[in-house]
Design a protein that fits this description.
The structure is a single chain. The protein is an alpha/beta fold and 194 residues long. Helices cover 26% and strands 21% of the residues. It has six helices and ten strands, in the order βαββαβααββαβαβββ. It has an eight-stranded mixed β-sheet with strand order 2-3-7-4-6-5-9-10, covered by helices on one side. A two-stranded parallel sheet has the order 1-8. The chain starts with a strand and ends in an 8-residue tail after the last strand.
């Protein structure tokens, strides 16, 4: 068991460790963006499945994407309506995004701001993190800290059972900006009016 306090979990991720915490959808497996390879290894995840960059606010994520002023206005409009929440936007990546986050197409990055107090608290202190669901690739998402501890014994999780997952168990909706409109890559918890 590697259940730790909130402060220890934050310290662990800041030093490049792999952590798990609740979100508004399913529990996240997370690390610093430049350490994203740890997630692929732990999950036995194929390199062609990109990770999501999660942060406490849209302002923390804008430096990781780039687009025209018109694109930015459209993105900000969607974000103001759906964030924080279960919507991941796939946008053109800026040079700040480590290529390991999306080896198959490093020109894009999925970004999200979760609507969960614990996730918000962690992300506000760590900055944006590379994330994905906590499970082995191709398996159902794990929904409790006990399950995550059992499957990923070296991953830091929060110690209190009072912090059981508040998520809805559904993944986020993933919408990709095509330059003209939104393409739904995965329908999840949010219905995007496109």
């Amino acid at each position: 068991m590697t259940s730790v306090s909130l402060a220890a979990l934050i310290a662990g991720v800041r030093t490049g460790g792999l952590v798990s915490f609740p979100t508004d959808t399913v529990p996240a497996l997370a690390t610093l963006p430049e350490q994203a390879g740890l997630i692929f290894a732990a999950k036995q995840r194929s390199q062609d499945k990109p990770l999501i960059l999660m942060a406490a606010s849209a302002e923390d994520l804008w430096p990781y994407v780039e687009g025209s002023e018109q694109d930015q206005q459209i993105w900000e409009q969607v974000v103001s309506q759906y964030w924080p929440g279960a919507l991941t936007l796939v946008l053109p990546a800026s040079k700040r995004v480590p290529k390991v986050m999306n080896l198959i197409d490093p020109t894009t990055i999925g970004i999200r701001v979760p609507k969960n107090a614990i996730a918000q608290k962690i992300l506000s202190q760590t900055g944006p993190l590379a994330t994905t669901s906590a499970n082995f690739s191709g398996q159902p998402a794990l929904l409790t800290m006990a399950e995550i501890d059992a499957q990923f014994p070296s991953v830091l999780t929060l110690e209190s059972t009072a912090l059981e997952m508040e998520g809805i168990g559904l993944p986020s909706t993933v919408a990709k900006w095509t330059g003209e409109n939104w393409q739904i890559l995965r329908q999840g918890a949010v219905s995007l009016g496109v």
